[in-house]
Write the structure tokens for this entry.
Amino acid sequence: MDERTLEEERFRRIFRGVHAGHVACLDDEWLNEPCRLADGRPAERPVVWSRRNGAWRRVETLWVGAAPGNAGGKGDGDLGAHGTRIPFGGDISGANVDALFGSIGLNRNDTFIVAALNQLPARGGGEPTTAEIGAPVGTYPTSLHVLRDTVLAAGPRLVVAFGTIAIRALLAALRLEDPREAGAAGTRSGATVRLPGAARLERAGLVRGVAVPWPEAEAPDEAFVRTWREAWGDSPLPHLLWLTHPSAQNMSPFAGVGTSFHARMLETRDALRRAVQDVLGWEVPQERAAPPETGIYALPEWRERIAPRHARLDELWRAKGV
């Protein structure tokens, strides 16, 4: 098996695990249809984890969000990741992500997006609860196990966490086998999940907007490090960049220049540009390019629903100098 095939197979194993209860999905890695249960009924909360999340190969950047949204539809809308099965797909946060990606010369076909919980939260949006993150997903004991395997499959040099839930879940996911972590999910189905709090983030030296090597105070457990070495040899563990979540509540293209919503977008964009320059050695573009028309961008949900929405919001950002 050549290296590219092996990389893809790591992602395929995760896909088959998270969709184990969705028989039709197993032969539909692009999720052209929403998830259905074994008896044919639509899944109430489909799993947003497929080729629509990004490249099934090693990537330099991995992005971690909180959970799929539904553009205010609370499960009934056709936009947002819950409606389109594309992370950050069709809502304001999605347009914000596209602007951020474009600011560093990146597109969705060259990276991968995952979440602390890859399903719409039961309340219809917002941040997932720790109980939801600790619930089984397919053959996985918890969503933290999905996140852990995704980091291993992606082998990134930089992991970008959007928001506090994302950074807390990320740190917890890589320490599941550490016996010192009281209440860690381990391999038990439905185990209690405890995510590191603000004090631990501070002690680890994690500051929003600053890319840092993986903190020694929150070092991954031995099992994770061993599996990382088996997959990626001497490659160092990724740097971490903790950014403000790009939701409409934090940054909005409808807000005026000089407002906190505009300022947070600029701060987030500039922090991201610094990180990819310093950590990855990228040259960032002066202007954002239009996305390609292949891969994720060729999906009908993107062309018909997401692209027109994102284009309108993108115009608003460009008019405000973003």
About this structure: The mean pLDDT is 94.
